[in-house]
Design goal:
Elements: H1 11-20, H2 22-43, H3 57-78, H4 95-114, H5 126-131, H6 133-153, H7 156-159, E1 162-165, E2 168-171, H8 172-196
Antiparallel strand pairs: 1-2
Length: 207
């Protein structure tokens, strides 16, 4: 081997470093790597790891569902009926529609993704729901009676079943957490409806 030049497979990289200078070449390499990584992330579907969750976690999710229900009901009770159809800002749902959206999404996600149904378990009259405290309160209560009953009765094996959920693959038990985030996110927007009328939102539930 002495006196014989061996061409290494990375020689073009070394040559590039010599031409550009190590600093410039390293910067270019990092930019290229970053670009490739972004393309890979854009092309690959987001998949969440389906790890097992202890059975006791169901109790935490039941409490989260109960908290969602109580939060929405406290908003229904605190807002005067005459403000139910008013919006806080252009493009926003009015108060009653926001409450309905949170509770109806709860119905849809549980019936469609947890149970695999093609229809909702109940379809009350929205004219009544949007214009009366009794109607809006009754809809929220019915929606969460259904979801809480489903959550408590869900088999452990079914909770571990992995399905596609809005473009992401995850176990069914995780959908309850995703649903909790959506409800809280929607309820957070409703605070603006109270502020627009010069009213404070209902107090934090723990106080």
């Amino acid at each position: 081997m002495q006196g014989r030049k061996v061409r290494m497979p990375w020689s073009p990289i070394v040559a590039g470093a010599r031409r550009l200078g190590c600093g410039a070449f390293l910067t270019a390499a990092l930019l290229l790597t970053s670009h490739v990584s972004r393309l890979t992330c854009q092309q690959a579907p987001p998949i969440r790891q389906a790890f097992a969750m202890p059975p006791e976690y169901r109790d935490i999710q039941v409490r989260a569902q109960e908290t969602q229900r109580n939060l929405l009901l406290s908003m229904v009770d605190s807002m005067p009926e005459r403000f139910y159809r008013l919006v806080a800002a252009p493009g926003q749902r009015d108060f009653a529609q926001q409450i309905h959206h949170a509770a109806n999404a709860n119905l849809y996600i549980v019936s469609h993704y947890i149970l695999g149904w093609d229809s909702l378990p109940l379809r009350p009259d929205t004219a009544v729901i949007f214009n009366s405290r009794e109607g809006l309160r009754g809809f929220v209560s019915q929606a969460y009676e259904f979801s809480l009953r489903t959550l408590r009765a869900q088999a452990d094996a079914d909770r571990q079943t992995t399905i596609w959920y809005f473009g992401q693959k995850m176990p069914k038990w995780m959908i309850w957490d995703e649903l909790n985030q959506h409800t809280i996110w929607t309820a957070g927007q409703i605070v603006a409806n109270f502020r627009a009328q010069g009213m404070p939102p209902p107090p934090f539930l723990y106080f």
